[in-house]
Each structure stands twice: as structure tokens, then as C-alpha cells.
Amino acid sequence: MILESRIPCDYLQDTVGLYFLHSPHYAPIPAKVSMLLEKMEQITFLHWWKDNSYRSELYHLPAGIISHGGGAQWALKNYKAMVNDTIANALETIQCRVIPFDSEWNTGISLPISKIEETDSIFPVQRYDWDSIRQKLEEYIEIVLRETL
């Protein structure tokens, strides 16, 4: 689910965390997510610029980042740098608190594709290790909840 700008801010204040789940297969950061983050950064920065003690409505709100992509384990570090770290920077600018998975994955997790198969179609078939994905998601969600509660 991509968080959309039509969600009222008072709803976010009662939320325990924000989760961004997206697929970088077609774009490192989808345009709607980028637009939303840019607008949130503008609003927060302008208030902070005027008053350095400013705390946004999202101040210290826990944020878990989950990206998706890469055909092999070695590619995941590129997704971390290109996607997770960039989104984490934007979330920290709006004063959210990004929850790390571990010391290496300090800006969330990235879920890999196990195998990509070529077909007669222009669309490849993507295979996933669903048990591994489920385990990693459960582990990260548990970490975020532990940090949140």
C-alpha cells in the first residue's frame, strides 16, 4: 500500500508507524511517493526554518521501510542505497524515526526476487521464495512494533 496524501494528518498522529511498500522494478521511487515526500519535506522544512524548535505532526513517528526488487542477494544492497536510504532521508527530514532492521540494514529491508524467467511475452515471470519473505517481514514488523510500543 502506498500512503496517499488524502489521508488526514490527525489520522497519522494516532498511527504507530508508517510503512512504504513499493516495487522498484519500474522506477526506484514511484512518482506519487516522491511527490508526497517532497510536499511533506517542504511543509516541515519551512516551519523548521522559521523556528528551529518546530516539531511536525509526524515528529518521532516510527517508520518502517520495505522495498522490493533485485534478482539476487548482491543486488539488494543497491536497492538499499537507491531506494531505502533515499526514502529514509526524506522521512527523517519530516522528523519521522526510521526503524532499522539491523546495523547493516539501518533503513529498513529489501525483499528479493528469487528468479526471473523469460517468456514469449514482453513480461518476465518473477518467482519468489514466499517462506523467506514471510519470515523476513515478520521479523522486521516485530522489530518495528517492539520499538514502537
What does this structure look like?
This protein is of the alpha/beta class and 149 residues long. Helix content is 44%, strand content 15%. It contains four helices and six strands. The strands form two sheets. Strands 1, 2, 3 and 4 form a four-stranded parallel beta sheet that branches. The chain has a two-stranded antiparallel ribbon with strand order 5-6. The longest helix is centred in the middle third of the chain and has 21 residues, at 73-93. The protein is globular, with a radius of gyration of 17 Å. The model is unreliable at 1-9 (pLDDT under 50).
Secondary structure topology:
Blueprint: H1 9-13, E1 18-22, H2 31-50, E2 62-68, H3 73-93, E3 97-98, E4 109-111, E5 115-117, E6 125-127, H4 130-148
Parallel strand pairs: 1-2, 2-3, 2-4
Antiparallel strand pairs: 5-6
Query: Which structural class best describes the helix and strand composition?
Result: alpha/beta
Largest beta-sheet details: 4 strands, parallel
Distance N to C terminus: 23 Å
How many helices in DSSP terms? 4
Which descriptor suits the 3D outline?
globular
Following the backbone from N to C, one meets helices and strands in this order, namely HEHEHEEEEH
Mean pLDDT score: 82
The total beta strand count reads: 6
Strand content range: 15-25%
The Cα radius of gyration reads: 17 Å
> Low-confidence parts lasting 5 or more residues at pLDDT below 50?
1-9
Helical fraction: 40-55%
